[in-house]
Amino acid sequence: MDFSLSPESRMMIKVARDFAEQVIEPIAARIEEEDALPDDLLSRFADAKMLGMMVPEEYGGTASTALNMILITEEFGKCGSAAYWAMAMNNSVGETLCHWGTKEQKEKFLPSICNGSSYAGMAFTEPGTGADPTAITTTAVQDGDSYVLNGTKRFITNGHKEGCGIFYAKDETGRVTAFIVDKRSEGYSWSKPWALMGLGGQGLVDVFLKDVRVPQENILGEKGKGFPILLRWIAGERIQQMAFLVGMGQACLDESLKYARERGVRGRPMTAMQGFQWMLAEMHASIEACRWWVYRVAAKQDSGEDFQVDSSALKLFVVPTIQEVARKALQVHGSYGYCKDYKIERLYRNIAHAGVTASSTEIQKTIVGSALSRAS
Fold this sequence. Notes:
Elements: H1 7-24, H2 28-34, H3 41-47, H4 66-77, H5 83-100, H6 103-115, E1 121-123, E2 139-143, E3 146-157, E4 164-170, E5 176-182, E6 188-190, E7 204-215, E8 219-220, H7 227-262, E9 264-265, E10 268-269, H8 274-302, H9 308-333, H10 343-351, H11 361-374
Parallel strand pairs: 1-4
Antiparallel strand pairs: 2-3, 3-7, 4-5, 5-8, 6-7, 9-10
Helix pairs in contact: 1-4, 4-7, 4-8, 5-6, 5-7, 7-8, 7-9, 7-10, 8-9, 9-10, 9-11
């Protein structure tokens, strides 16, 4: 088993690190304070060839791999900023369209996702459901060669920004169908962004669909078979989310090392004290374990194997492990860690999101446990 990274992967890590340090890190605090991303950020990701990473070149992508996507995600995680999520959504939705879409759909929607002129979105969650497809109330009624969508979607990233989104609704058969919706459509509107504990600028809104007309050719995959599309997408999103956590965990360790080296206790730096050395060692070991498991599941996705259960098991391990890393980092900083002047405060808040988004850790237990019970 080869654990070494290819020259291409190492190059992409460097490009992502430079972008994170030069573009995102200087504005991370302002993004949190203003709860908004710069208008030109998505196009800057496109210029850096970080959109459409798993999209073929013929549609404007770079034809890269899930592993390379994870590697750059980790670098952006070190900033502890939601600025990354705009790029992540375009990449994951673009890959989903590639996997399930028709040639015509790919030609119509992928180029703008890859060049940064379109903010992609994914809309399944509703006020009454976050995981159960039977609880969806959004409807899609056929009218001639179109479908008319009505309903409310909740916590939709980029739901208020121009582009396309994959929306899930119950068709006339009562089954879930995935539709590609133009967010400029008549009858499409949104709420103000939700105010979050962390991840300022992510731009989660409620989307209101009132008689939104969607052409029949915008059905993604097969009619009535939208849920498998969602399950595959969210499994990939989980891997990206865990890579983001690994990056933030590494930043927690880096910030702790920096603080402990500079903070003196009785004439010696904190790093000379065994108690702090043990905390730092535990943090390092935890991050390394998470890092390599993330890489393993991403490689499995690239190989074409089923990775949905693996991504759930991955999240079960990574979320509490990195949250414990963040807790220890806060303890290393003492009272200063609770101050917004220190980066650890932002990291601690942002790491808290992972247990309740991209499906909760409790749901992952059900997915993994059910899979193990069915295995022969």
